[in-house]
Specification:
IQ motif containing F6, about 110 residues, IQ_motif_EF-hand-BS, rod-shaped, alpha+beta, signal, calmodulin binding, IQCF, 1 helix
Length: about 110
């Protein structure tokens, strides 16, 4: 009778130990998944920040290039308007008459 009682107690202890080990494994798996999810969220946030910084840098370079192009265009337009319609050419005096070779450039 005592042996059977001890056997039942040992079996109950073994069942409780098995249940506890399975619960510990489940909790460990939950902690691992939570840590993995947290790591993934942090990595995703880092990737998003890096993408935003790269986009900001590219936009800044584009705006600088566009501003430089606008300045070059405005200076070129000013230069073109200043030189438009000038009379260029050469002339020479022969004997009693004036011979002119005039070229009018309209650009």
């Amino acid at each position: 009778m005592v042996r059977r009682t001890l056997l039942h107690a040992a079996l109950r202890a073994w069942v409780i130990q098995c249940w506890w080990r399975s619960m510990q494994a489940k909790m460990l798996e939950q902690r691992r998944r939570l840590a993995l999810r947290l790591y993934t969220c942090q990595e995703w946030a880092v990737v998003k920040v890096q993408a935003q910084v790269r986009m900001w840098q590219a936009r800044r370079r584009f705006l600088q290039a566009r501003q430089a192009a606008c300045i070059i265009q405005s200076h070129w337009r000013w230069h073109a308007s200043q030189t438009r319609g000038l009379i260029r050419g050469h002339y020479e005096v022969r004997a009693s008459r004036l011979e002119l070779d005039i070229e009018i450039l309209m650009t």
